[in-house]
Fold each of these.
Amino acid sequence: MKSIEEFIHLVQEEISQYNFPKQPEGLYDPLDYFLKIGGKRLRPVLTLLGADLFGGDIQKALKPAVGIELFHNFTLVHDDIMDDAPLRRGQSTVHEKWNLNTAILSGDVLFVDAFEKVSDVDEQYLKDVIHVFVKTAREVCEGQQKDMDFESETVVSEKDYIKMIQFKTSVLLGCALQIGAIISGADQSDAEHLYQFGLSLGTSFQIKDDYLDAFGDPEKFGKQVGGDIISNKKTILLIKALELASVSQKAKLLELLGESNLVLKVESVKRLYNETGATDYALNQMETYYQESISHLDQINATSKSKQLLYGFADWLKNRDI
């Protein structure tokens, strides 16, 4: 049985051999740059794991796996524009290193190339693969729009928050796994359970990300701890704290949203998250979605041995501190 590390190596090798055209340089140089600054490559690895689970040909899964990664990078290039982010993975974002118009157009090309790679499957599976990919691409855009809408909305419900993070993040994990399953001939029920495994696991992953943003170790987390608090981002922690808070706690929390002393703001808001029970609630929800993902994996008609890599991947994602 292959290891996760071996699958990552396969993906990295495939991406390293991926060559964009040389001209026009202003369009393709930014894409070479962006792909070379790295990333965990988790999504394409999930495509390979989905194919491997059902005895599929890993070589045939590599091109659609790379397509998933190109699509993910397309979303990152455009997200960085919308967030006006100066850095990605510790390096200058495309719109900072070049300019806004170049970043928009280069991102568009990544989407086109992603579609081409995802479509490189046996004809008998093409219709189903394209259906899953197009549905997911639309949902990711809807999730991003909802995230931007939240910035101007005074009240956001937990239900809307969960739908937003599922569309923005989780559906692509489910899509990556499901495409691997489809091109390996998995039956519809097993492919759907694998999709739901990815969806629930991705939801748990994002809730954990919200938690780490507030309470993670800055030496391990890799980005500013408390960034969501500073920007008043409506995470599950803030949403639930406002819901569970007493009258005085809610007044204090709302007052802190406008606090200019950022160190004081972060520490005070974190304290209120703990006092209101929002922190415990978020961790419980993270566990609930994790267990839901395992339940779907349990129901897939495959041997326990063949599912070990996916169980291990889920466990790693759950217990990560970065």
Note: The mean pLDDT is 94.
Amino acid sequence: MSKHDEARRAFLVSVAAGAVAGAGLGRAALAQTEQHPASTVAAPSAAAAPPAAALPAQAHGDIVEHRAFLNDDDAAAVAALAERIMPGAPGKPGARDAGVLNYIDLALAGAYADLQDFYRRGLAQLDAHCRKIYGASFVALDAARQDRVIAALEDGTAAGFTWPSAPAFFNTLRTHTMEGMFADPIYGGNKDFAGWRLVGFPGAQPLFTPEDMRSGQAYTGAAIIGLQAQAKG
């Protein structure tokens, strides 16, 4: 894992940790932690999000199978982009480990359906840009070239983008990657509470004792409970 990857992870984890500490990290709360607005479309409330159980994901190679909206090529590109935005490391989950692709796929089929054309156009423009500059799709590029593409998206120098603009496309996908990492697993991401464990968020607990509330140390008691687990109780 490069120093660049480590710095990116450290920044995104610190942003997420602050949001978790303040609000339990619902979808809308997480979107508000971004330094740049993701798009002109307001993030829906957690109640409007599609439950992950509606379309269960299955293993498909090294990515989560998409069954709601994205086609094969688009799913591979989204998975690769998300992994470079939030790269994994030994003992530290990244976007792929947390099922971010599944989260985005489900969201685009439900609460974020108004962003379907935004994603289609953005991914098509991304593919055209990568093939023009490097002669290959984003997925086929090595990590260093993928990072150069992402930098060009972020600063608006990626050629060929009209609508959405390159920065708007990047900011939206970054926000959705963060949501998929750290929102409640009921929405299809944060697999096995990977994101919550990464930032030390204990999740919902049946009862915090007075000693727990006074303690300045990380909570080490009962297992994390998400909305999905509570709904089964």
Note: The CA atoms of residues 16 and 182 lie 7 Å apart.
Amino acid sequence: MFIAHTCTYQVVASNHSNYTVTTTVYTCKECGPCPHKAKCIKGASKTPLEERSKSLHVSKNFLRQREQMQERIQSEQGVLLRINRSIQVEGAFAVLKQDMGFQRFLLRGNVKVQTELLLLCMAYNLKKLHNKIQGSRCGKYLHIPKAS
């Protein structure tokens, strides 16, 4: 097994919104005699494979943030939020179109269409509330309400 000598350096770059990203670059100094070079270095380049060396870019801040996000997503509250989000909008349009028979707006003009949409939304919310009351699901919150 061939062990290559590496050198490391830091690259600091900013994007269009002035967010600074610090990336550590690990570069192999001596990739020439390595038997795995053809498998390790991929991509099309005008530079011949013999003259190229492997570079690995690692943003430690990004890795830390990714771990935090994974923990938040996989927490109990994160699972509830994802379940709730996945059923919100598409289900509402499906109920309006399929169950309530909404095909198109009957009136023309911005104010009249907004009024018709408002009535549809009120009907949808009332139907949801009715189903909650009938199913004895009142008083159960996904999020604890803030007291003012």
Note: The chain is about 45% helix and 15% strand.
